[in-house]
Design goal:
The protein is an alpha/beta fold and 147 residues long. The protein has 4 helices and 7 strands, in the order βαβααββββαβ. The protein folds into 2 domains: 85 residues, FAD/NAD(P)-binding domain; 59 residues, no CATH class. The chain is 27% helix and 20% strand. The longest helix has 14 residues. The radius of gyration is 19 Å and the shape is elongated. The chain starts with 12 loop residues before the first strand and ends in a 16-residue tail after the last strand. The chain binds flavin-adenine dinucleotide. Flavin-adenine dinucleotide binds next to helix 1 and strand 2.
Length: 147
C-alpha cells in the first residue's frame, strides 16, 4: 500500500499512526488474534519529540516484551528535577518516593529509536505495517441500523 501498491488489503482493525499509541494498540489487538493494519506516514526511524519516560510506562513496556530493548537504548533515570530558570531554586522528585512505587526508575530515550522498537514489535506480532504512507481520507462502510 505504498504509492504504487494498489492491491486491496483486508483487516479487522485499521490503525492510523505508528507512534507509541498506534503501535501499542496494534500489538495488543494482534495478540488477541485480531487482524490489524498499521499505517505510518513517515518511515521509521523518524524524529519525534517526547523523550522522557516515567516509571508507570515500565509495566506496559514489560508486558509488550520490549523492556530489554528500551533499556539498551535508554538512559537510566531515577527521578526528575525541576530547576528555576532564574537560578533561585530546584526541586527533585526521586521516583522511589512516589505514591505506591513499583518501578523506581524510568528511561530517557531517543523517540526515533523508541518508536521504532514499538513499531517493529507490532510487526513481529503479525501486524501488517506500512511506512511512508500518509492517510489523506477515509470512507467508512455503511452501518446497518440496530433493530
Ligand atoms: C514539546 C513536547 C514535549 C514532550 N515531552 C514529552 C516527554 O518528555 N515525555 C512524554 O512522555 N511525552 C512528551 N510529550 C508528549 C508525547 O510526544 C506524546 O504524548 C506522544 O508522542 C503521543 O504518542 P502517540 O502515539 O499518541 O502520537 P505520536 O507520537 O504523535 O504518533 C502519531 C503518529 O501518527 C503519524 N501520523 C499522523 N498523521 C498521519 C496520517 N494522516 N497518516 C499516517 N500516519 C500519520 C505520525 O507520523 C506519528 O508517527 C511531549 C510533547 C511535546 C509537544
Amino acid at each position: 500500500m505504498n504509492g504504487s501498491d494498489t492491491a486491496s488489503h483486508v483487516c479487522d482493525v485499521l490503525v492510523i499512526g505508528g507512534g507509541p499509541a498506534g503501535s501499542t494498540a496494534a500489538t495488543l489487538l494482534a495478540r488477541q488474534g485480531v487482524s490489524v493494519i498499521l499505517l505510518e506516514k513517515d518511515p521509521h526511524r523518524r524524529f519525534h519529540i517526547g523523550e522522557s519516560l516515567l516509571p508507570c510506562n515500565l509495566p506496559l513496556l514489560r508486558d509488550l516484551g520490549v523492556l530489554d530493548k528500551v533499556r539498551e537504548i535508554g538512559v537510566f533515570k531515577p527521578g526528575a528535577e525541576f530547576v528555576s530558570d532564574r537560578g533561585e531554586g530546584r526541586l527533585a522528585f526521586p521516583f522511589r518516593y512516589a505514591i505506591s512505587p513499583k518501578d523506581t526508575h524510568a528511561y530517557q530515550v531517543r523517540r526515533s529509536e523508541f518508536d521504532e522498537i514499538l513499531f517493529r514489535n507490532a510487526q513481529s506480532h503479525g501486524v501488517k505495517t506500512f511506512e511512508g504512507l500518509r492517510v489523506t481520507r477515509h470512507v467508512l462502510p455503511p452501518v446497518s441500523p440496530r433493530r
